[in-house]
Amino acid sequence: MVGEIGPGSLGVRLLARLPRATVIGIDADPVSLTLGRSAYRDVLGLRFVEEDLRLPGWAARLGLGTRAPDAAVSTTALHWLPEPELRAMYAELAAVLRPGGLLLDGDHFALDAKEFPVLARLDRALRQREDQRRFPGGHSENWHAWWDAAAADPALAGHVAEREEWRDHADHHGWATRLLVTHIDALHAAGFAEAGTLWQRGENRLLCAVRGS
User: Fold this and answer.
1) pTM: predicted TM-score of the whole model, two decimal places
2) Which positions ≥6 away from 21 have C-beta within 8 Å?
3) Distance CA 177, CA 19 (A)
4) Residue 113 pLDDT > 70, yes or no?
């Protein structure tokens, strides 16, 4: 099993459910990798790999051996890939997954507001109302505050600076590929036999794609 894994919590949860699995956590963010390796260095079955999914040949550099992965998983990570790199990544993933293998990607996938103006507006409204219900006093810590705290930590400051250099080449906050249709089209073009929403709450969706035989 391979995954865009950030600081490792997703991989640990997968191994708690599937203790006989092997999970390879992939990320290019030095802060996430440092946190993951520090927190979960003793977790059996979990291995971290520093790899940029925008660069061709990433799958060959994972050291998968002869067994093809059964699944690839990701949460709130792939939306920062520009569309050409996203399509190339999906094509490479389709080539490495076993026949019938799955991609499971949880993210905020938006509908095309030009094609579905009412549904897109309802999606956004549902997400906003859920946020208000779950966090009536607002979030205790926002994205920028978290990274400011990380930059102030002596153990992470160097990695944060390295991350800023890496982010110069990434469009994370631009949400380059937020549209659901962009991912569906790219997955079908890559050779996945099926692709669609497996679970949804407003824009929060679990996208599932099945590799063809």
Assistant:
1) 0.87
2) 1, 14, 15, 45
3) 33
4) yes
Token reading at 42: 């003793």
The number of angstroms, rounded, from the C-alpha of 189 to the middle of its chain's C-alpha atoms is 20
Q: Which domains does the chain have, with CATH numbers?
A: 2-110+162-211 (3.40.50.150)
Query: CB of 209 within 8 A of CB of 187?
Result: yes
As a whole number of angstroms, the distance between CA 78 and CA 146 comes to 21
User: What DSSP string runs through 72-98?
Assistant: EEEES-GGGS-HHHHHHHHHHHHHHSP
Measure Cα distances from 10 to 61, 120, 152 in Å. 21, 28, 26
Residue 40: what pLDDT? 93
76: which 2 tokens?
A: 């709130």
